[in-house]
């Protein structure tokens, strides 16, 4: 029987894994510069966490979660996003008793049962940040700028920042009622999906890409015209702080995001080179989430960025990450005695952080050299009985073809010089 990876999942193979490692390393570095610390939460949680946190009438909870019953009869869900788990951990471990705000970041796989398409998979990977226990508009701007700086660090600079406020528990309900009335008046022009959303989750109608729905949406009441004074002031200050950082943005009243827990600031960063699915990352405030999950009134804000979507964006711009595959030295061996001595040399070199390799298939010299070439070896050396007897061998630069005679007993010192780019 032949087995394949489940639909919507992918094997990430070398040398592509080097790109992932580079992205993760850069993420650790930049997030640490902003004083965000890494948190690692379980890959699955009790289903109720996401039902309460994300919202029972969202597409994620209704259609996309991987939910199953464990052997104890408990309903378990593979995490579809990272924020609810981070807030659960914050509350469970009583981090609110420590100095605030708390600033976390995470990197890991998420799971949603969606129709696989470009940049969208059933197992996908996100990196994200969460800043908890502060409602300061400056923190909103910091979070947004952090995401932008991260993308710029990968070479992406032709991006659009879309910004909105989705209000709060005081001003959003009256706006939702007004929106419902408007949508009901134009129900005959809406797609079936949007018709079903009018009563359950009318804000999601604003995100529909159907042309007929778009013609209705463009004249719909705008939430930015219906904010309370507090939300208006907060939104104005967020923009002031973004102006201080010289970050350009577009006010997009139709931007609502797909999760029920958002309040106040909502944002998305778009790359138009990606076509219809052009959002690289997005996020916003979720000031009611901690109360919904754990009855504790704590504000928060964050964003999540899909690594697969980031790689697509880099590919669309033909941006090559500075990663190199291959080995520093490939030792070609002739004979059993040379193999054992070379095995010892490999160990010494590896202990000094050199990437080294040798043959394990008892191939001839020609085949070993081809293997070295396929491994993108920077240098090669042939060691046989004559080289051992003379304590000398010829080391070759595989790119330039230059060669140099060295003492085998000095191989480690010679490699230190060579890898430091000194000419041979």
TrEMBL record:
<dbReference type="InterPro" id="IPR004154">
    <property type="entry name" value="Anticodon-bd"/>
</dbReference>
<dbReference type="GO" id="GO:0016740">
    <property type="term" value="F:transferase activity"/>
</dbReference>
<keyword id="KW-0963">Cytoplasm</keyword>
<dbReference type="InterPro" id="IPR006195">
    <property type="entry name" value="aa-tRNA-synth_II"/>
</dbReference>
<dbReference type="Pfam" id="PF03129">
    <property type="entry name" value="HGTP_anticodon"/>
</dbReference>
<feature type="binding site">
    <location>
        <position position="126"/>
    </location>
    <ligand>
        <name>L-histidine</name>
    </ligand>
</feature>
<keyword id="KW-0067">ATP-binding</keyword>
<feature type="domain" description="Aminoacyl-transfer RNA synthetases class-II family profile">
    <location>
        <begin position="23"/>
        <end position="322"/>
    </location>
</feature>
<dbReference type="GO" id="GO:0005737">
    <property type="term" value="C:cytoplasm"/>
</dbReference>
<dbReference type="InterPro" id="IPR041715">
    <property type="entry name" value="HisRS-like_core"/>
</dbReference>
<keyword id="KW-0030">Aminoacyl-tRNA synthetase</keyword>
<feature type="binding site">
    <location>
        <position position="257"/>
    </location>
    <ligand>
        <name>L-histidine</name>
    </ligand>
</feature>
<dbReference type="InterPro" id="IPR036621">
    <property type="entry name" value="Anticodon-bd_dom_sf"/>
</dbReference>
<dbReference type="InterPro" id="IPR004516">
    <property type="entry name" value="HisRS/HisZ"/>
</dbReference>
<dbReference type="GO" id="GO:0004821">
    <property type="term" value="F:histidine-tRNA ligase activity"/>
</dbReference>
<keyword id="KW-0648">Protein biosynthesis</keyword>
<feature type="binding site">
    <location>
        <begin position="261"/>
        <end position="262"/>
    </location>
    <ligand>
        <name>L-histidine</name>
    </ligand>
</feature>
<feature type="binding site">
    <location>
        <position position="112"/>
    </location>
    <ligand>
        <name>L-histidine</name>
    </ligand>
</feature>
<dbReference type="InterPro" id="IPR015807">
    <property type="entry name" value="His-tRNA-ligase"/>
</dbReference>
<keyword id="KW-0547">Nucleotide-binding</keyword>
<dbReference type="InterPro" id="IPR033656">
    <property type="entry name" value="HisRS_anticodon"/>
</dbReference>
<comment type="similarity">
    <text>Belongs to the class-II aminoacyl-tRNA synthetase family.</text>
</comment>
<feature type="binding site">
    <location>
        <position position="130"/>
    </location>
    <ligand>
        <name>L-histidine</name>
    </ligand>
</feature>
<protein>
    <recommendedName>
        <fullName>Histidine--tRNA ligase</fullName>
        <ecNumber>6.1.1.21</ecNumber>
    </recommendedName>
</protein>
<dbReference type="InterPro" id="IPR045864">
    <property type="entry name" value="aa-tRNA-synth_II/BPL/LPL"/>
</dbReference>
<feature type="binding site">
    <location>
        <begin position="81"/>
        <end position="83"/>
    </location>
    <ligand>
        <name>L-histidine</name>
    </ligand>
</feature>
<comment type="subunit">
    <text>Homodimer.</text>
</comment>
<dbReference type="GO" id="GO:0005524">
    <property type="term" value="F:ATP binding"/>
</dbReference>
<dbReference type="GO" id="GO:0006427">
    <property type="term" value="P:histidyl-tRNA aminoacylation"/>
</dbReference>
<keyword id="KW-0436">Ligase</keyword>
<dbReference type="GO" id="GO:0140096">
    <property type="term" value="F:catalytic activity, acting on a protein"/>
</dbReference>
<dbReference type="Pfam" id="PF13393">
    <property type="entry name" value="tRNA-synt_His"/>
</dbReference>
